[in-house]
Amino acid sequence: MIMFIIAAVVMFSGVTGSLNVTESLEADTADMLAHPNSVPEFTEEETEILGQILDVEAEGDVMATGELNPNHYQAQRAAKVVQHYLNTRNGSPFRLFRLSRVHSGNLEDLVDSGRKYQLEITVKESISNTTEKLSASVLFPREERQGSAQVQASCDELLKVNITAQEEAFYQQYKNSQNLVSAQYLPDSHGRIDDDMRPFWHLSIVASSFVMLKESNENTLYNMAQVANVTQLATENDQLKFDGHILLHDMVSQEIIHWKLQFTWSPPEGVKVLQMEQLPHCHHCEKPQNSN
Amino acid sequence: MHSCVGLSCVLLLTVIGAATVERAEYDYFKYHPMSEITGWMAQIQKENPDLVSIMDYGKTYEKRTISLLKIGVNTGEKKKAIWMDCGIHAREWIAPAFCQYFVRQILDAYKKDPKMQEMMKNMDFYVTPVLNMDGYIFSWANDSTRLWRKNRSPGPAGCDCYGTDLNRNFDANWGTIGVSFNCCDQTYCGKDAMSEPEAQAVTFFVGTRKEDFLCFLTIHSYGQLLLLPYGHPNFTAPNYDELMKVGLAAADAIKKVHGMHYTVGTSPDVLYPNSGSSRDWSRMQGIPYTFTFELRDNGTYGFELPEDQIKPACEEAYSGALEIITYAHNKTFNGAVATAAATLWTVLLTVCVTSTNLM
Predict the structure, then answer these.
(1) 26-65 of B, contacting A, C-beta below 8 A
(2) Which of residues 147-206 of A touch B (CB under 8 A)?
(3) To the nearest whole number, what is the mean pLDDT of chain B?
(4) Partners of A134 in the beta sheet?
(5) Cα dist. B15→B3, B8, B20 in Å?
(6) Are A103 and A79 in contact, with CB atoms under 8 Å apart?
(7) Are A57 and B233 contacting, i.e. CB atoms less than 8 angstroms apart?
(8) Is B315 designated active site?
(9) What is residue A268's predicted lDDT score, i.e. its pLDDT?
(10) Fewer CB atoms inside 10 A, N or C side of chain A?
C-alpha cells in the first residue's frame, strides 16, 4: 500500500516539475511572437500586472509629482545638481563633494516658478572620505529664460574638516611660480593621475561644476569625464588663474561636451569662473544650438 | 663571510631559474589592448583544451573576426547556455576587463568548487570579451579617441560622422525611444534595425540557439546599475517580478563584497528610456534572465576607471553575475528534483502519522 503511494507520488512530481518549466516558456513564446510594435499578448495574470504598471505610468506622466522613488532617475538627477552646487560654493583643490545616496525625494509643481524637488541625501567629501546627511531643494525653472536650477543646501559638518594648511601651502607653491603648470588628460586613458596633479584635477572639477550647474535640467545627468588640458596663467589679483579645456559627460544623451573655461582660485575667494564657452565637438560641425 | 656570498649566489640563481621557467602571468588587473586580449583567448583555450573552445561568429565593419570563448564540459549532449558580452561600447574599458576576469574565475572555480563543476556539466558559457572590436581599438589609438562609444561604420550619405550605437541597433522596438537619428550623435541607432554587422553577429548566433539560452548578460559601465528589460516604458517583461527579485539578490551579493551600492530596475525607471538594446532583443527572443550590468563607478572617474579599481570592480560584479547564473541554473536543473523530493517527504510523513493514529 505504502509502496503504491510512493510510486504514485514520484510519478506525479515528475509531471509537476516539468510543468513549471513549460509555463514560463509559453509566456515567453507569446511575448516573442507578438509584433514588436504592438502590446504583447500576455496571460491573464500578466495582463493584470501590466495594467497596474501602465496605470502607474499614466499617473506618472500626468502628475509626476509627489513622493519619488529615491533610486529612480528623477530624484537622482536632481540630487546630482546639489552636488554641482555644493562644489561651486565650497569646492577647492582639497575639498570635493560627491553625491553618495538619495534617501527620499518629493516633487512639487509650482505653477509660476517651476518644478521643485525636496531631497534627503548623503554627500561625501571625497578627500577626507567623510559623509554628511542633509536636506536640499532644487527648483528647475519652467522656462529657460528664467535661468538655471536654483539650489538650497548646505553641508556644515563637512566644511569643518580642516584643509587650511594644505590650501595655503599649495597656494604659496604656485602663486609666484616662474614655471607655470600645464597638464593634459586628467585622468589619462588608464585612470591615472599624478599625485602632484591631483589638486589641479580637483580644481578643474570645481570649475566644471559651474558649467554643470548652469546646464543641468530634468533631462540631464552631468559628470566631468576628463580634463583635456589645464594650463596655469600668470597670477592676477592674488588669484591663481587657469585656462581649462574640459570634457563633460551627459549620461542621458551619452554625449561628451567640450567646454573652455577660464577660472581663478585662492584660499579666501574659492573658485571663480571668469569665462565659459561650449566648443563644437568636431571641427566641421556647426556650433551646437543652446537648446535644453 | 664566504657562506654569505655563497648563499646570495644560490638565491640569485634560484630567482633567475624561476624567472626563466615560469611564463609571465596574464595581468587581469591592467587594461589590455585588443591584440593582447586575442592572444589571451588563444592561451586560455590552449591551457584548458577540454573545457574551452574559440568560436568565430561574425565580422566587424572593418572586417575583424568577432570571437567568443565557449566554456563547459563536453557532454556530447545539447546543453543549456549562458551568454555574456562585454565591450559593446568602446570606451567602457572595465567591461572587457570583467569578461576576462570572469573567464579566469569560472575556470579556477571549476577546479575546486563542486557547484561550478555541476553548472559546467549542465551549461555552456559563451563569453565575448570585446564585441565592438573596431570601436575598442579606436579608443586605444590616442588620448583624443579614448571616449569613443559607437562602432566604426561610416554614416549614411550626407553625414560626415562615423559610428552607430550598437546598443540601439538591435531589433527590439528599434528607433522608437531614447535614440537619435542624427548620425553624429552618440545614440545614433543606425539606418535600420540590425544594420550593423556586430549586431547581426549576435543576433544570428544567439537567435539560432535561443531555446538553449537561460541568461543573457551584457556588461557596460558606468553607473553601478543592474538593468532589467524593457527600455521602452510601455512594455513590461512577463517575468518582471522575478527579474526584480533576482536582480535585488545580485545587488545584495555585490554589496557584500566591497560595500558598493548597485541600483536595480528597468532603464526607464532608474536611468532613461531606450530601444534597440541587446538586452531587450534577447528578452524578446524568450531568454528568461536578461540583464545589463553597469559597472563602477558613479562619475568620479567615469569611463577612465583607475587600474587599481579593476580588481574590486570585477570581484563584486562576479558575485552579482554568479547569483543570477546560479539562480537560472537551479531553477532549470534542480527545480523538478526539489519538488519531487518535497512532495515525497510530505506524503511519507502523512502516511506515517495516519498509520500511527490507526494503530
Answers:
(1) 30-31
(2) 184-185, 187-192
(3) 92
(4) A121
(5) 18, 11, 9
(6) no
(7) yes
(8) no
(9) 97
(10) N
| Residue B212: predicted pLDDT | 98
Question: Which of A28, A39, A284 lies at the smallest CB-CB distance from B238?
Answer: A28
pLDDT < 50 stretches in chain A: 6-10, 12-63, 283-292
For A51, residues 6+ apart whose C-beta sits below 8 A from its C-beta are none
Burial, A278: exposed, middle or buried (Cβ in 10 Å; 0-12, 13-18, 19+)? middle
Distance CA B275, CA A38 (A): 14
Query: Would you kindly state where each structural domain of chain A is located, as residue ranges?
Result: 7-290
pLDDT tens string B52-62:
999 999 999 99
At residue B24, the pLDDT reads: 73
The DSSP secondary-structure symbol of B156 reads P
Q: Hey, what's the cell of B82?
A: 549562458
pLDDT class of B338 with cuts at 50, 70, 90: low
- The verdict on ipTM greater than 0.85 is yes
Q: Say if residues B218 and B87 touch (Cβ distance below 8 Å).
A: no
Please say whether the beta carbons of B151 and B134 come within 8 A.
yes
Of the candidates B239, B300, B348, which has its C-beta nearest A126's C-beta?
B300
pLDDT at B148: 98
- Of the candidates B338, B318, B351, the residue with the CA atom closest to the CA atom of residue B97: B318
Subunit contact A191:B172, Cβ cutoff 8 A: no
- A221, burial (CB in 10 Å: exposed 0-12, middle 13-18, buried 19+): buried
3-state secondary structure of A188: coil
Q: Is A129 helix (H, G, I), strand (E, B) or coil?
A: coil
Cα distances (Å, whole numbers) of residue B100 to B97, B149, B227: 5, 20, 22
Question: Do B173 and B127 contact (CB within 8 A), yes or no?
Answer: no
Q: What angle do CA B102, B105, B107 make, to 5 degrees?
A: 110
**What is the pairing mode between strands B80-86 and B123-128?**
parallel
**Fold type of domain A7-290:** Nuclear Transport Factor 2; Chain: A, (3.10.450)
